[in-house]
Amino acid sequence: MSEPELLFACDGPLATVTFNRPEARNAMTWAMYDGLGEACETVDSTAEVRVLILRGAGGKAFVAGTDISQFQAFRTPEDALEYERRLDRVIARLEAVTKPTIAAIVGSAAGAGAVIALACDLRYCTPESQIGVPIARTLGNCLSVANYARLVDLLGPARTKELLFRARLATAEEASQAGLVNGIVPTERLHAHVQEVAREIATHAPITLRVTKEAIRRLQVQRRTVEGDDLTVQAYMSDDFREGVAAFLEKRKPVFRGR
Fold it and tell me: Which ranges in 96-156 belong to alpha helices (H)?
């Protein structure tokens, strides 16, 4: 928890993780993923903590995905598989936190940022917020089967396909109508509202909350045992993915050729 890119703080029954790379729209580094996993362990081992809040610093993004520069080192299928396994481990750990979790979304929650938000139990956003996984337009990679399943759980198959195929970031209103967020709150009120919801939840029976959360998690996990390594390798080892990474870093539109 010493990484300044990810901050952890407790205030009575509430713990808060702040993604703290505002200059990079809080894009996740490997150290930030590790720090998020450590924060989950701390929350579960601290009896006084009843609710975990996740937020982004800077007011422009919750998390804008994984730091794309890290993908330049990918050369082998194992690089791709290890990345998705790392992400799956962290997201599964966040999902399994025994206390309720709330994402406070200001600005965009894109790519891995959307996945992190969707792994939380509740999500509140501002009218200007956007959420989605635009990888078909940007990088040409894919999600793990578990993360596809999280989207299907919330949206259903047809809406999940539309979100991914059109590679759009849903507006706050669209996200609310689709069930991606629990509520839209004025920007200046968001963090106060999330704190109010968290403190309300913190007064309720911890065992009831824990058992309810775990029961729902177990129901969802049953559908995530499908093998998907071949799909991950197909996407990450493609010429299109290398073009997507290069184009992103060069600030130009990628030219995908289906190879």
Answer: 112-119, 145-155
